[in-house]
Write a structure and sequence with these properties.
8 helices, 5-stranded parallel sheet, alpha/beta
Length: 167
């Protein structure tokens, strides 16, 4: 297995929740890059997006993610990291990328207010548009895909660990 495990997927798919438990089970460090961004910038994600715009936020997200130096870590970046080519190239070099996949209805049901959550939605873009656009990128970057539609959290965690064991 590669040095790190990087979770990608839509907001509200459970990257951080699953990531923390997987990290504990493997004895790895856990890194939430949204928290790193907020610490570096001294602002909440939604404030960065409001003040810098989507492109400004993505530039910050790319910089923070491409600079993550870890060995034996589970890393949970924001869902928009797949727009950040340098960051994703860094992750592909330094770890195994795990796509936590859930169908649109599941994501929509979990994500009550995308703007408050700091989701990078462009003007006029719907959550469905975002889902369709990102799904192609998640699939392209994934080393492993784990479907969690209709799964309990514990089932998703076991599926991830089993998939990692097979590497």
């Amino acid at each position: 297995m590669k040095k790190n495990i990087i979770f990608i997927g839509m907001p509200a798919v459970g990257k951080s929740t699953v990531g923390v438990v997987v990290a504990k089970r493997l004895g790895y460090e856990f890194i939430d890059t949204d928290l790193l961004i907020q610490k570096q910038e001294g602002r909440l994600l939604r404030e960065i997006i409001a003040e810098e715009g989507i492109d400004g936020f993505l530039a910050i997200e790319n910089q923070v993610n491409r600079e993550v130096e870890a060995d034996g870590a589970v890393i949970s970046p924001g869902g928009s990291v797949v727009y950040c080519e340098e960051a994703m190239a860094h992750y592909k070099e330094t770890g195994t990328v795990v796509y936590l996949q859930a169908d649109f209805e599941e994501i929509s049901g979990r994500l009550k207010n995308a703007k408050k959550r700091g989701v990078a939605l462009r003007e006029g873009q719907t959550l469905r548009d975002l889902y369709d656009e990102r799904t192609k990128l998640f699939e392209a970057y994934a080393d492993i895909t784990v479907s969690e539609t209709g799964q309990e959290l514990s089932e998703t965690i076991e599926k991830v660990l089993e998939a990692l064991d097979r590497l």
